[in-house]
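**User:** Hello, beginner here. Are you able to go through the protein record under this note? It all follows right here:
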Amino acid sequence: MTNDIPARDSPIAGGVEDGPVSVEVPAWRIAVATLGKSPLSMVGLGIVLLILVLAIFGPWIAPFPDDAGATVNFAERLQPPSWKHWFGTDIVGRDVLSRVIVGARISMMIAAFVIVLAVLIGVPIGIIAAYWGGWLGNILMRINEVFLAIPSLVFVLAVAALLGPSLPVVIAAIALAWWTWFARLAYGEALHIKEEQFVEAAQVSGAGGLRIAFTEILPNLTSVLVVKITLDIGYVILLGAALGFLGLGVQPPDPEWGIMVAEGRDQLPNAWWLTTFPGLAIFVTVIGFNLLGDGLNDLLGARQ
């Protein structure tokens, strides 16, 4: 007698099928896996996270937070690195480690404000010049080329010398020199994007020019903008430190890294720690953002 009851693994009985099963992987797991393939990118991510933690919680992490200001303690003047002062003390007895930690906030503040201003100015100019073109696009890009023709450091030095050294002046001067790079990038990318079919579909549907520019083209610039922002943060920090070193940036007693390097140069080579540790902070921060930027470039390129 034949058994007509379907087997448990039979498709008729609702059992397990032999075909492939599609499983949706969360985007964050893909991102972590992609970054994890590059050890240098993970090192960069770790450095950036550390700098951000120091920038946010620096005054509470620093062992001697009062030394970030105008505190004077001549009894511990120019002490070499020790268990009490890991990075030594400066010419007036302030703890160098505490000043380096708190100085991360100033450097990140400069970078954040500069990048935000540069993006807000440069990206709309680049998109408008690319989408509308014609005489308007020519005028905007000729102005952009005039600013690009002036070296960033020379322009920033001129503005800082003219208006006087201070934190707002440093931010404004660097932002005025930096927006041109974002305008150039947005212009080049928008020229290609505006020829895509989804832009033509929006035009056919009757969408206005501004709506197409900032709801269709702008979102498609996100990937390249994120990579450029990450890479540029390191360069902005370096430029801000250069202004501080030359005396045209943030002024003492604020613990800005460039100022600390400048203050310690007269004590070389005896008090080497005065310039070494702030210089290392600048170097490590710039390297960290560059490594992270390279990793994001690979990640976002793979996702595209």
Q: What stands out?
A: The chain has one domain: 39-61+94-303. Residues 8-17 have pLDDT under 50 and may be disordered. The domain at 39-61+94-303 is CATH 1.10.3720.10 (MetI-like fold). Residues 8 and 199 are 53 Å apart (CA to CA).
